[in-house]
Design goal:
InterPro entries: ADH-like_C, ADH-like_N, ER, GroES-like_sf, Mito_Enoyl-ACP_Reductase, NAD(P)-bd_dom_sf. Keywords: Fatty acid biosynthesis, Fatty acid metabolism, Lipid biosynthesis, Lipid metabolism, NADP, Oxidoreductase, Transit peptide. This is enoyl-[acyl-carrier-protein] reductase. This protein is an alpha/beta fold. It has 2 domains: about 1-120 and about 295-325, Alpha-Beta Complex (Quinone Oxidoreductase, Chain A, domain 1); about 125-265, NAD(P)-binding Rossmann-like Domain (Rossmann fold, 3-Layer(aba) Sandwich), CATH 3.40.50.720. It is built from 12 helices and 15 strands. It has helices at about 10-15, 45-50, 115-120, 125-135, 155-165, 180-185, 195-205, 220-230, 250-255, 265-270, 275-290, 305-315; strands spanning about 1-5, 15-20, 30-40, 60, 70-75, 85-90, 100-105, 145, 170-175, 190, 210-215, 235, 260, 295-300, 320-325. The strands form 3 sheets. Strands 3, 5, 6, 7, 14 and 15 form a 6-stranded mixed β-sheet that branches. Strand 11 (about 210-215), helix 8 and strand 12 (about 235) form a beta-alpha-beta unit. Helix 4 packs across helix 5 (about 155-165). The longest helix has 16 residues, at about 275-290. It starts with a strand and ends with a strand.
Length: about 325
């Protein structure tokens, strides 16, 4: 079997390698053996490989943060799962691996009719979008939310989930050719970043009172989103795609009573019960199965093509998946 790992921190395509590992063997009581079907390369994986993530693993370290797998062998004492069921990798597992032996606690069978490529992206981006929409501001049907990086995987999930909840979206993008694509996905307003963003947002939304902004870019664009918020609004920052800091002036936050919050999914996992985590994951699985949540996949690579896959993913042109088998 194969595993993708890093032996140093640096440029992801330079430090990644595929290694051969022995088979994990038969499962014990309460364990299952799972074969990876698909596992995405997320921006957070690339940040971790550079040594800049919120946690830094001991090297050498296997990589991969989410994926979907088939149960190939089940140990004793397991209820609700059988061989052939499709499951998510347990949280904390390294997923860029042919075969794994894992604890069955918290695992559940995913909808058989759902696309496994889409299910492989269930654990990170859809819950991030859903939780940011529901846990910071009590939005009602007809309310507005504004987000940067509207064409990202989280951005697309925000558009889809907001539509399901009756919330209207303003999505800010960098390229005008994305406007029609996101509109077709259900985005209410799509604007290209640039000068006078707050003025253009007010015109497009009829001067709506926007109480929630979501940002994954950071840098100078952070202040532009801040300016679009109504007094008392909240900006939730969940990424630093720009790679650097940006201006965030204190005065507007004091005089307009604005709030800046950070969101990291790992913190949410750590403070919630297994039951709550499974509840959110099952809701995301249902929305993937019915087509509400969909992320285009640009390419798939086998595990022995790890450097090529990472190089492709680092270009940021589309979603890249590892495939098992």
């Amino acid at each position: 079997m194969h595993s993708v790992q890093i032996n140093a921190f640096g440029k992801p395509w330079d430090v990644v390698e595929t290694v051969a590992l022995p088979d994990p063997g038969a499962p014990g009581a309460g364990e299952v053996v799972i074969d990876m079907e698909f596992s995405p390369i997320n921006p957070s994986d690339l940040v971790l490989m550079r040594g800049l993530y919120g946690v830094k693993p001991k090297l050498p370290a296997p990589v991969g943060s989410e994926g979907v797998a088939r149960v190939t062998k089940a140990g004793s004492g397991i209820a609700g799962l059988k061989e052939g069921d499709r499951v998510l990798f347990p949280r904390g597992s390294s997923t860029w691996m042919t075969r794994s032996k894992v604890k069955a606690d918290g695992l559940f069978a995913l909808p058989a009719s759902a696309d496994p490529q889409q299910l492989s992206m269930l654990m990170v981006n859809p819950p991030t979008a859903y939780l940011m929409l529901t846990e910071y501001v009590a939005l009602k049907k007809g309310d507005w939310v504004i987000q940067s990086a509207g064409n990202s995987a989280v951005g697309r999930a925000v558009i889809a989930i907001a539509g399901k909840l009756g919330i209207q979206t303003v999505s800010v993008v960098r390229r005008p050719e994305l406007i029609g694509e996101l509109k077709n996905l259900g985005a209410d307003v799509v604007l290209v970043e640039g000068p006078d963003l707050a003025k253009r947002v007010a015109e497009a939304t009829g001067k709506a009172k926007i109480m929630l902004a979501l940002d994954s870019v950071g840098g100078p664009g952070l202040m532009a989103l801040n300016d679009c918020l109504a007094n008392g609004g909240t900006l939730v920052a969940y990424g630093v795609m720009s790679g650097g800091p940006g201006p965030f002036f204190t005065a507007p936050n004091i005089f307009r009573d604005l709030t800046l919050k950070g969101f990291w999914l790992l913190n949410w996992f750590n403070r919630n019960s297994p039951e709550r985590i499974a509840e959110v994951q099952k809701q995301m699985a249902a929305w993937i199965a019915d087509g509400t949540i969909f992320t285009p996949v640009e390419a798939t690579y086998s595990l022995d093509q790890s450097a090529a896959a990472i190089s492709h993913a680092a270009k940021g042109t589309g979603k890249i998946l590892f495939k098992g088998g």
